[in-house]
Amino acid sequence: MTRFFGAMTGWTLSKNTSPTLVPKKRPKKFNAEKIHPMKLYHRDDCPFCWKVRLAFLFANASPQMIPVERGTKHPDIIKLSKTGTIPVFVDGDLVIAQSSVLLEYINDALADGKLLPATPAGKVAVRCLCYYSDNSVGPALRGLVFERRDKSEDEQDKDLIAKSDQAWRACLDVLEAGFVGPFMCGEFSMADCTFLPRLALAERYGACVDERHPSLHKYWQTARQSELYLNSFAHD
Ligand SMILES: N[C@@H](CCC(=O)N[C@@H](CS)C(=O)NCC(=O)O)C(=O)O
């Protein structure tokens, strides 16, 4: 299989930089050139869906993308996902309805194991970072995203936003202290797929990473111009 990023030692930067959540130019990667039996039920701004889109791109795999609207329950999801959540991946009889399990599958089945380091200790470090991103970073940002996304300025709970911002900054302190570089955990890995959407959403909702976290700031400034990141926005 031709790998999208080859042996990845650095970001492949795009000339098409886009500061917005949805770039104006339609990226090519999800315009299926051929019909593929794999399907991914997803939502554009869901960080769990976004991380698997990044992993599929890394693996140069293009499942058929089935968008699910926020606040609606797609009838297929009710049948396929025990938790009723997206992303849901279907390939024939295989159904995977948990993003972290799906990342492992993409790594094993499609990415030639390249989304994890080779050593057991390296694998543990990456998986711990993914766990931290899903279970600490995500909840830290929740107040900020939900208040600013779903409410008018007047309705927003400013205390909740401030607490969320503080919790997010505390996570950034932890991540900055443990940053390995050039990617989140050394070489590009599922830790980058998991954490990049959190950075994107933080920026979208006004909690940008800045010079107070210099390594992460540099990482994000490079990552947001990369082909991988810019191609990972959802398109039907
Ligand atoms: N543990 C799940 C969490 C997925 C999740 O919470 N997805 C949200 C969207 S971001 C969801 O589907 N919520 C229910 C809904 O939108 O109806 C995973 O990693 O796949």
The total beta strand count reads: 4
Examine the coordinates and then state which fold CATH places here, giving the name of the CATH topology of the largest domain: Glutathione S-transferase Yfyf (Class Pi), Chain A, domain 2
Strand composition percent? 5-15%
Strand arrangement, major sheet: 2-1-3-4
If classified by CATH, what would the architecture of the largest domain be?
A: Up-down Bundle
User: Count the helices. How many?
Assistant: 8
- Assign the structural class, choosing from mainly alpha, mainly beta, alpha/beta, alpha+beta, or little secondary structure: alpha+beta
Instruction: Indicate the overall shape.
Output: globular
Comma- or semicolon-separated keywords:
alpha+beta, Glutaredoxin, Glutathione S-transferase Yfyf (Class Pi), Chain A, domain 2, 2 domains, 6% strand, globular, disordered N terminus, binds glutathione
Write up what this structure looks like.
The protein has helices at residues 47-58, 75-80, 99-110, 120-150, 158-178, 190-204, 214-223, 227-230; strands spanning 39-42, 64-67, 88-91, 94-96. By secondary structure, the chain is of the alpha+beta class. Strands 2-1-3-4 form a 4-stranded mixed β-sheet. β3 (88-91) and β4 (94-96) form a beta hairpin. The chain starts with 38 loop residues before the first strand and ends in a 6-residue tail after the last helix. The model is unreliable at 1-7 and 18-24 (pLDDT under 50). The structure holds glutathione. Glutathione binds at residues 46, 48, 73, 84-87, 98-100.
